[in-house]
Amino acid sequence: GKKGTQIFQQQHTLITQHLQHEEYNEQVLNHLMIAFRYISPFLDTEQNLKQLMEKVYHVTVQQTGKESATEFIQLHTVNRNMDLVRLWFSKAEWDTLENIGDVLRGLLDTGYFKFSFEDQVVSTVAKLSPYSHKGRQQSKLVLCYTPSSSQGEGGTKVRTWQKEQIEDFTRKLGFLEKGQNSEDYSKFQRLSVIAHSLFAIQQKLLSLGYKKVMSSELKCSCSLQEAEKQHSGLEERLKNWQNDLLQLQENYDKLLLFRIPKILRIHRILLLPEDDIKIKEILQEVAFLFPSLSSPREKIAAALQNYFSSTIQSEVCSASKETKMTITNVGEMLKFLFKEIKFTFTSHALRGVLSQLPFLSVPDRFKSENYVCNFHIALSFTSKDLIRLILEIYRGIPGPYELFHCRPDTTSDELSLFYRRAMKFFSLQFTILEVNLLPAWLQDELLQLHLTLQKKKKTSTLHYIATGPTVLQDMPWVTMKEHISDQLIYDWDTAKVECNKLLNPNSAAFAVVELVYGKTGDGKTHYIRKRLNNHKQSLTVVINESFSAYNTVVQLRQLPLERDNAIYFSFTMLPPSEEFTELDKNLYKNVMKKVERFFFDLIFLGYVEDSESGVSFKLPGDLQWSLYFEVSSRENLGPQDSLNEFTKELPVVELIGKRKYIKPENPYDVNSDVQLVCKYLQAYDMYRNKESEGINRILPPMGRIQHFDKIAFSHIKDLPKEECQRLLYTYMPEHIKQNKIYQKLFVGYMTRRCCFMETFPAFNYNEGRITYDDTRDETVVTVDTSKLGSTVMETMLKEVSDFCQPRRMKDWTKTTKQQLVYDEKDGGGSFHLIAVNSEKMQDTEKEKYRIMRVEMPPSYELKSRDYLDKCLSSALNVPLKNGRISAIDERKYVLTLDYTLKMLEIHERFQCGIPVVIEGETGVGKTALLEMLSVLWNQSLLSEQRLIVDRVLILLQQVCSGLKGTIKDETFSKVVQCINNKESVPYIHLKHVCSSELEINDPKESKKGSLKQEPKRIKLSNYLACYVSETISQPVINLLDYKAIWSAIQSKKSQGSTKELPELPFEELVKKFEKGRQRKYTAGLLYYLLRAEPLKTFYKLNVHAALTTKDIYEFFEPIFNEAKLIEGKCQKYPSFAIPRITIFLDEINTSSCLGLLKEVLVDQTFYGKKIPGHIFIVSACNPHRGNSVFVHEKEMKSEAWVRGSYNVHRLHPTIKCLKWDYGFLNIQQEDDYIKAKMRMLSGSCSITLTDHLSAIIGKSQKLMRDYATEHLTQVYKVSEDVSKKLSYSCVSQRDIQRVFTFYEWLRKGYLKFGKERFNTLEITKSSCDEQAVLVALGLVYYLRLDEKYRDRYNKDINKAIINPKSVVEALKEEMDFYSDHLSIPRGIAKTQALMENLFCTIVCCCTCTPLIIVGAPGSSKTLSFNLVLSNLKGRE
Fold this sequence. Notes:
Blueprint: H1 2-18, H2 26-39, H3 49-58, H4 61-64, H5 70-80, H6 82-92, H7 94-97, H8 100-110, E1 112-116, E2 140-145, E3 159-161, H9 163-173, H10 182-207, E4 217-219, H11 224-251, H12 260-270, H13 275-286, H14 296-309, H15 311-317, H16 323-341, E5 373-377, H17 383-394, E6 403-405, H18 412-424, E7 429-433, H19 440-454, E8 461-466, E9 479-482, H20 492-503, E10 510-517, H21 524-532, E11 537-543, H22 549-557, E12 565-571, H23 582-605, E13 607-609, E14 616-618, E15 625-630, H24 639-649, E16 658-661, H25 672-688, H26 721-731, H27 734-737, H28 740-758, H29 761-764, E17 769-774, E18 779-784, H30 788-803, E19 818-823, E20 830-835, H31 843-851, H32 859-862, H33 865-876, H34 886-890, H35 897-911, E21 916-919, H36 926-937, H37 939-963, H38 971-980, H39 987-994, E22 999-1001, H40 1003-1008, E23 1017-1019, H41 1020-1032, H42 1043-1054, H43 1066-1076, H44 1079-1091, E24 1098-1102, H45 1109-1130, E25 1141-1146, H46 1154-1163, E26 1165-1166, E27 1169-1170, E28 1175-1181, H47 1188-1196, H48 1213-1218, E29 1219-1221, H49 1227-1242, H50 1247-1275, H51 1280-1287, ...
Helix pairs in contact: 1-2, 1-6, 2-5, 10-11, 11-16, 12-13, 12-16, 13-14, 14-16, 18-19, 25-26, 25-28, 28-30, 33-35, 37-38, 38-39, 39-44, 41-44, 43-44, 49-50, 49-52, 50-51, 50-53, 50-54, 52-53, 53-55, 55-56, 56-57
């Protein structure tokens, strides 16, 4: 089978790795691999490797029946050399097989199979969580044993094997020779079989509601007779419990209406202490049984109240934990409930709602003396057709207990329960839907159940519905009826009308049910959320790739059973486009099947239940809830077509829902932000229409001194709604009017700018002119500011229009780009300006900024770090140190003009609450930029945290330094030594210092007192306790990361570490310390403070095609939980700013989970819950170029070193509206980046040399793009314009970074060992720099090319090199040096391929650079790796 093939290929790989330097016949081994593939179909059973070899040994070509197949001729070669093959496998497995007998003996002596089982029912109602994506604890079987080598070495270590390891060990046992450990081998094999059978039986017992587990383990040391006895005892227990369960269901027939997990869940609820909670929860569990009861909730609640107050309840609470009593208690409760309510079961078809409608009466031939059984053949019926058929069969809607919907994973227990229900409640009609979905063995079992049902004297009407071929069509005593969709009684429109009458009797069940649809960005979500605000309470349920019935039911149960509530179902998942793989398409189909079945149960039957946990939900029929369904817009489809596709997949939602079309011309809603923007727009509009001075209002002379009102317009009366909408659409550019998402961007940007105007002193106190000193020309300048307001508004409107462009390239060098930087520090607003190519600006533009009193720096100043740091400092409110931002220097980040502009734009979007979706090529610095931006946003917090930790270190150093010479205790000296060497101070030293009784001069009193006064003495322990108390009271201390420290402590203790460590986590220590300030806790707190890491504020998820919804959930869940804890801690200190957490999702359009990502990015919710406001999520995607998958596959057919496309999917339409083009570094920006990086790393080298080396690197980047353009044009016949565009991404900033990584490593080695390396008496730094750059270029660019382009590159790059040494010469010199110092076995030739592979492997290992060696078989790939590996290990 497939599994065997994988194991065999693993063995084959193992051999090729272990025997690289051995004499073996590769041809024989490859023949064996081919032979295995062709022999597999002729092996009738799975066999281990040893058995396979025996089989292969005796197989001849004639036996295969394919004598002409040349591949099978190779079997002769294998057969003749079978002993050699056996020897190779034995040698490859030697390390494992050498001790396999001892391991087997150890397993039989100390091992035991351990069983742990899934918790079938959630323990308490209060702990239900809608985000329980991982599910409950999984059942598993493991094998535990104690290796003999671990005994007596600091305690006994128990090893645990999972299922895969047990199978692997069993496979390896097949290598043992016959007769070797044969008795042990047979015993272990039999014990393994018994253990797996015990595990399966106990799982069966638990699934049937049996509480007590007979045994949790099976010891390997027991005899086989004991194990068999244990097994037979458990089998007997299963048989007895099945009989008991049947008897209980006979005594309490209402139990047949519930699955076992639901019964156990109800019993858990019965044991809760509070009657109110019990009534509320049980009401939701049993309400579905009483659909035709008027005011069912009140009557059920009253009956339950009587039950809990009766003497029967005391028996329930004191009941034994025995499973039989558990089910009996639930049965008694149901019996009392039905008796109290006086409710009798009748089929829903007898409700009479459709009784007057024309319906085909049941013919006599359908009837028998005992029962009526119909088999309905409904081939190729859609979901709509099945609903119509069920309406026809029932003359109404069936109860949820009357319908059984088959699944491929249906169990026999579920079917058996349904048949027993049909036998008992013969007044009902029962239907088994889509019986063709059952596996063949279960269809046979269903036939037996049907025969049993037929023998009963009195039973129900039973219907089978098949939508495909099935063996059940020939069932006996069944009337067959074949249906045709067009001939059903009700068409779909009539079915909808009648279903509304049934589901909405007297229009009381639902207040509103709407299917909201429209184009992307027309405001569907906004419309629904606005409607939700009008309801008492609401719940948002997001339907995407992570859908599960359990999570959704639990979410629905959170909504209280009160009037006028609402549920919002947001469908973010879209069908995969043609570029998706078949796996992704099948995933979508499977999810949609679950969704369709869920909503069929919820809406059509009114009740939905998770079969595994028993958690259920029933739509209340008398509370007038509202349901809203948001229909996602589909790409390339209009709104109506999108709705039609949606209802085609989920027709049941159309039964009760009315269509609501959101028109694109609907006006933008007016809120407080819109009012503020429109007040400023109105003032600007008045100025433009010359109605008044408007925005250019002038403050009267001396107005500021007399404290007149400032000019700000926020205080004026709110404008009418119609006027606001007129102003918005007057000043919105055309491209913004097209889409509500762009309109939201416009309002968000303008709101931020109008808020700035409110604090802009020059505007609010404008007196018409201003005089100031021009520091550049040392002159006094007078500026007319009478049009300051209109000038600022015009600038802002133009800026916002540019920001809201849906597709705009971020290549600032080709335009006269101007960007204002808004500085709100020190309580007053001011501007800075970044004006690219200011010399090309028109005079009118320059005059505009002069009126605003904005300095226009020259172009050369824009490239200076000081000015860029100044702009970032103003915008991000980051403090400057000596005119620069220290965090940028500490992280060695290369800040350029391009990166500064991009940081400012991302910051603007964050401030406006607008999602950021970046589209850009790979390797353009997106991750580094966002990580740096995250640090800058939290610079104050991070600096303060580091400062506190540094103060603690300085304090310890000063205290211990003052005492180390006065006493003989060496602990103080060791503490000082650790601090000086930047090592962690051990806990035992801290404990010793903090418990010291020595006295020191009180540092506080020493600062206050005079020199003549005797300094006050204080105990060292008391002083440290006071200092720690003051330190931990600061807010930033609570935001340090202590979890990793506590995890490390626990890990060390679990490994048997004897070192003394803190006993409690940081939070517990703080509580203990604050209660008594005991000195023993001071050392523990210092231990944490000295090791604490700053708060992590940046997280990155590398999205890829294999990423599942579970992976995404497990990534986000801990981050969001941590964010909520941080938010809670910061709320204790109102003046303390909550840190900003940045999450970066890279390459989102490689994922098939775009629906879930759309919820996170656009809706800013996670499983329907609002994401904390201080979390900022940024995503990036690669450009989609035509059919990317097709192009990718086309390129794969040839050995191309350049690819012109990305293997990506189309974005979700809503995400697509938000993306903006990140662009790439053009040649000028790339050169600026290389120069800045080179100057940072080269140190004292001359500017001439660094510029020359930078030019060589830049030239290499250009050459690679030229070669790629030529390659795409010649090989793929791509036009030159397109090939230039595609080839630009063949190299990126990552290649430049790799050059500098290799350069740093090589240069460091040259400076340290240069004289020996180059065999010279003196070596200069410049020569080291040149050599390092040339070798680095060879590694990054030259070795990547094929022979043709290698020669071209060497010639072209040498033209730009001043040094007489070429790249090839420098690279060869380096490779020769390393190969001469490697130990290479005799007989291995130093070929060019081997030399290159060796050198690349060494350099990449030493610099932690990923390496992919690409080459044909036999080109020394594996050999080179093994040679490097053996050399790096050193001599034996």
